[in-house]
Specification:
globular, Poly(a)-polymerase, middle domain, Beta Polymerase, domain 2, 7 strands, seven-stranded mixed beta sheet, 2 domains, 375 residues, alpha+beta, single chain
């Protein structure tokens, strides 16, 4: 039986994805009339808020009961590079403008107050998380007609949608790679090593590691120029300015599934765990995981040379513990920065043990936990 059928029942459903799209539409409507110019005290941009979804639901790596993240960006025809706005806004090579990190809390607070005024009966509770690397507010929204409510994590991140779209291109372009990512994600989560907030790696970092492994071992021909996503976002922003605001390529529906040969994926999985868990392939002390096509780094030394002009605090914010060096495809930081030495050793041990086990047994173990159909 093809592997997709084995994991299909646990993937994000069309119904769940439609609910995310409905929440996106609701949030964009709730932001009608919100003005970034008034909040930041900048010159008129004729901008209006727009909402993009991001996260595993967009990238095609989501399982059932996953959440969606929502980024509030601002569409404009104006020039965002004027000196009067340079300290507050980022130019994104599209019609979207992004609020700079130091102003996120102020703008998110204003967004929250704007929504509360018009939708006080719909938003039953909210949480404000500003200490995270990407600050966000969590809105708890009541359901209509006695249906179950939902929550929305709302940020001002442009890199969230951009990273998610990049992964979506990889997942849709190579179904074999996608199946491997989904299986590796299930296994690593069952082993308790996927949780960046608690000092482990994130599911996003794991996906980047898997893509990197597939590329360097020539198991996939997919090497995507990161500027391709910028072009997609430019087209999206242009369409949205023109009033086309419903479905866009790659984000209008849940990522489709294609059958793949299970033997190939099992071989890939075994190789992946051996690549990062063994002692002869990837050297965590010297090597870097980097899936960029442009300005690619091949060693930790070259990465450190590029930031040697930063002070210790800035270096820590970018690289963290430097135990596992996983370069973000767009931002200048390490996706493995929260992993200390001991957790790094545990991650490698999980990979090593998986590489010494028949991959069929790994998947069957997930089946016993109710996470996957048996092989």
């Amino acid at each position: 039986m093809a592997l997709v059928r084995r994991i299909g029942s646990s993937l994000l459903s069309h119904k769940e994805y439609s609910r995310f799209l409905d929440n996106r539409k609701w949030l964009e409507g709730a932001l009608e009339g919100f003005s970034i110019e008034n909040v930041l005290g900048i010159s008129q941009l004729s901008s209006r808020p727009s909402v993009l979804m991001y996260g595993s639901c967009v990238s095609g790596t989501a399982f059932s009961n996953a959440d969606a993240d929502y980024a509030v960006l601002f569409l404009t025809q104006g020039n965002t590079e004027e000196s009067s706005m340079a300290n507050m806004l980022n130019y994104t090579h599209s019609k979207f403008i992004e609020v700079k990190r130091e102003h996120h809390q102020k703008v998110l607070l204003s967004i929250l107050e704007h929504i509360r005024v018009s939708f006080c009966s719909t938003v039953v509770k909210c949480e404000q998380i500003y200490s995270a690397r990407v600050p966000f507010i969590r809105l708890f929204k009541s359901g209509a007609n006695n249906t179950e409510g939902s929550h929305l994590d709302v940020s001002l991140s442009f890199d969230g949608p951009r990273n998610s779209l990049l992964l979506r291109l990889y997942m849709e372009g190579d179904p074999r790679l996608r199946c491997g990512v989904l299986c590796a994600k299930k296994w690593c989560r069952s082993q308790g090593i996927l949780d960046a907030r608690r000092g482990w790696i994130s599911a996003y970092a794991l996906t980047v590691m898997y893509i990197f492994y597939m590329q360097v071992t020539k198991r996939t021909a997919r090497i995507i120029d990161e500027s391709e996503v910028n072009n997609i976002l430019y087209c999206m922003s242009k369409q949205m300015l023109e009033g086309v605001n419903e479905c866009f390529p790659f984000v209008g529906d849940v990522c489709s599934c294609s059958d793949v040969d299970i033997k190939n994926v099992l071989s890939d999985l075994h190789g992946f765990f051996h690549f990062f868990g063994g002692s002869m392939c990837f050297d965590f002390d010297t090597d870097v995981v980097d899936i960029r096509k442009n300005d690619k780094l091949v060693s930790k030394e070259s990465w450190l040379e590029g930031i040697n002009h930063f002070d210790e605090k800035t270096r820590w914010n970018l690289l963290g513990y430097e135990t596992i060096m996983i370069r973000d495809p767009y931002e200048d930081h390490n996706l493995g920065r929260s992993v200390d030495f001991f957790r790094g050793e545990r991650i490698r041990e999980v990979f090593r043990l998986a590489s010494e086990t028949k991959i069929e047994d790994v998947l069957n173990e997930l089946a016993k936990q109710g996470r996957l159909s048996s092989v």
